């Protein structure tokens, strides 16, 4: 258009111009999932706020001679909360993520809405609906100043069309940002208070408990206890999820189970009655965040007991963690192990010791599709370059048979040998914990210096952790002895690669591969397994 759009908008003249409305709500407007006949009567708080914003925006544009050509909707979108993102240059930063808002600014720059209509300006209900983030405000100001596309509001709290208005907007957004931070801090403190009292908080009900989050669900708690006993008895987590999915057992949200969901549930200290919180730990290698459960402690350093029925004892839950791990181990951001024995096979030529790599067979070798070898890297990659090479499928088959045979032998031995009914280290663990308590008391009375106290505490804590690991392994053995052993031979082909690798790594520390001497030598004769002992798990 010939006339300056910003100047016309400043004087309230929208005649002949095309506008879009941006509507935003910080909370989810979706229905709560209940059937219509189960919902209560509507109140003023039930009005769909984005619809009200759109209606007011359209009315404002029409009364001033303009035309609304598009609506940008942002339901359940925070204009303040930051998320962890990776920039194109690889850096990891925290940013407010609003793809709809950012798309609207790009459309304003080009002067065209997503539906192909000409786009002259953007209207919002007020400055809070536009942004609470200074970085996004500056992006909006750039569109107005450099591209001469007006961004205005209905109630007069936003003025990006003048220098004074832009200065005021920066102050208002800064104050709104602080208000959001203050609200977040108050909510966080409230949740911490609830945690200290062991009170369950909002969100979906946990599997195994009723909607009150306090009493056990009769069927789900039964399934969960049975699943825990199976895993302690040696069954892979995937076998439990597969059984549940076949029976139609779903999550509280009605979804099917997978190993990640079940492990997250099993790692939750709620199972044994402890109050917990979920924390996110940044992985500096990948830039991602790993979630894990954290037990809440009171001022005396004791675990806070939740106000709900526990499912299993703390000792049994600790034994479960010995099997599945207490948290997701940080990775490299992608699956680096696509073959069964990478990381396990090692070159045995002249004590090279390098892990063998998997390499697909060349086309000229006339091997079946997908055929591969395990081979020692060349000297430039740290290997010996001596040509240690073994057919992958045959090596996988030989080691699989070895692992299964070892598992079956150990299962038979467990059935034949009665496990001790008491753990021998109980008294020692009790004494160590008494020593820790005595040291704390001595420090409070200033009997011990700070240096001496922390030196003793480090020593006692290390002993406590070692004894707890021993106790948890004993508990695991108790349940393994009680349960029916897994038929690993029958279930092997149904396991995922990660689960198969777990059995291999639990059985073997490494397998040495000797160079081929002559032809037609069976693969298994070139393999020297190094079995893992009980001490290796400590």
TrEMBL record:
Gene3D superfamilies: Putative Large Serine Recombinase, Chain B, Domain 2, Resolvase, N-terminal catalytic domain. GO terms for molecular function: DNA binding; DNA strand exchange activity. Residues 28-55 are annotated as: Disordered. The lineage of its organism: Bacteria, Bacillati, Actinomycetota, Actinomycetes, Kitasatosporales. InterPro entries: DNA_bind_recomb_sf, DNA_bind_recombinase_dom, Resolv_N, Resolvase-like_N_sf, SSR_resolvase. Residues 206-331 form the Recombinase domain. It holds the Pfam family Recombinase. Residues 45-55 have a biased composition (Basic and acidic residues). This is Site-specific DNA recombinase.
